[in-house]
Amino acid sequence: MQVILLERVAKLGQMGETVKVRDGFARNYLLPLGKALRANEANKKRFEAERATLEARNLERKSEAQTVAETLGGKSFIVVRSAGETGQLYGSVAARDIVDVLGAEGFNIGRNQVDLNNPIKTIGLHDVVLHLHAEVEIKIQINVARSADEAERQQKGESLTSADAIYGVDEDALKPEDFFNPEAEFDGDDE
User: Fold this and answer.
1) Quick one: pLDDT at residue 160?
2) Which domains does the chain have, with CATH numbers?
3) What is the model's pLDDT at position 179?
4) Which parts of this chain are annotated as the region Disordered (predicted)?
């Protein structure tokens, strides 16, 4: 199906371009969200008549996205979750969790604006990309930890999943003979 784009769509084209897309993509996404019109003579005339308004609205959205990007850019947000000793989360941190954390800080970000291919399943510092506008994208840091204290330690660069952090043992000082001594006598008593 041929459509006229009413705004820039990533990996598809710029505003005003006539592009060929699959019928389902046009019917289920582009047309209902107002991102495109069917390419026919009446809609081409309508687009040309509304072009200035559409460009002004797009410029306004872009400037709003840039102001949000300036305040959000480079910030770190803490997400507290339950995790095992190895750092594996019992659940996961998904896009909706990130939206909730940003909402608690006063940022109105949609779930579709969070670029998270797979949910976060381990504690640590994770970079997440936010698409605020088709032309504005920023990177924030999500600090996933078991507590606020651990989040502070992680932010300073401490590893919370190493043997030192878990057991209080220096990994570099450990030697294989500390774990197994073949010459040690066994008296048959388990205690």
Assistant:
1) 65
2) 2-65 (3.40.5.10), 73-166 (3.10.430.100)
3) 59
4) 150-191
